[in-house]
Amino acid sequence: MKANKIALVTGGGRGLGKDMVLSIAKKGIDIVLTYNSNQKAAEDVAAEVRSLGQKATVLKLDVSAVSTFDSFVTELKKYLKSDFNTDKIDFLVNNGGYGISSPSFAETTEDQFDQLMNVHFKGVFFLTQKLLPLLNDGGGIVNISSGLTRVSFAGRGAYASMKAAIETLTRYLAKELGSRNIRVNVVAPGAIATDFGGGNTRDNPQVQTYLKSITAIPRIGQADDIGGIVAFLCSEDAKWMTAQRIEASGGMSI
Fold first, then answer.
1. Residue 250 counted as domain residue
2. What is this structure's pTM?
3. For 181-237, what is each residue's pLDDT tens digit?
4. Is 1 inside any structural domain?
5. How far is CA 179 from CA 138, 175, 176, 234, in A?
6. CA neighbor of 32 nearest in space, from 16, 13, 15
7. Which of 16, 94, 178, 180 falls between 20 and 30 A from 136, CA-CA?
8. Residue 241 has what DSSP assignment?
9. Which position among 35, 79, 98, 159 bears the catalytic label?
10. Residue 21: count of CB within 10 angstroms of its CB
11. Whole domain around residue 204: which residue ranges?
12. Any domain includes 160
């Protein structure tokens, strides 16, 4: 019997990552999901994956700590062998991240900048580099960006700039990995009702009213608006797609 494909999803225990994991699992793909601080939430998601008939393994990973990536890869190899009887993955979803309260450009500190850079660009760059030897030819990478690379809101300059860097990196990876038939795409969510950035979009009625007023489909996005797109990019239906930016924002600021 042919083995299932395997997707590694960083930050897969909550928010958008949780829905990505479940949507990918519904495609018949086994899952390795990582968490940074909430192991129980990640284990609960893994249990949901197993209830769908797929295998799931949970590993701890701080995507901002590049110095830990070698040990993470060693641990990943161990669990791939013991839990999946393989030494490779097929898909990497670089989802893990967080937001901070919105300082203006003038108020952004070097420490805040470095924290965001380590998570949203440096970590993605070097984790992907470390995982390339484990990624099967014919597989795929899905990066996560933001609608904020296309539209501008005061106070999001540092975060949005790093997400723009991810979009550029996506195209370069697609170019360099194409000879291995590895597809690399990026998904840019709009305003989503999760706990990201302190849950302001989810919990603040004034913010919601404003965002609805500038969105063609006048509602706030939900996690399941994004997970299915990521799962599609991990499927054979997307086998001819690479270097593409897909925005799912309900038509925000068009």
1. no
2. 0.95
3. 999 999 999 988 876 666 667 777 888 888 999 999 999 999 999 999 999 999 999
4. no
5. 9, 8, 7, 18
6. 13
7. 16
8. -
9. 159
10. 31
11. 6-244
12. yes
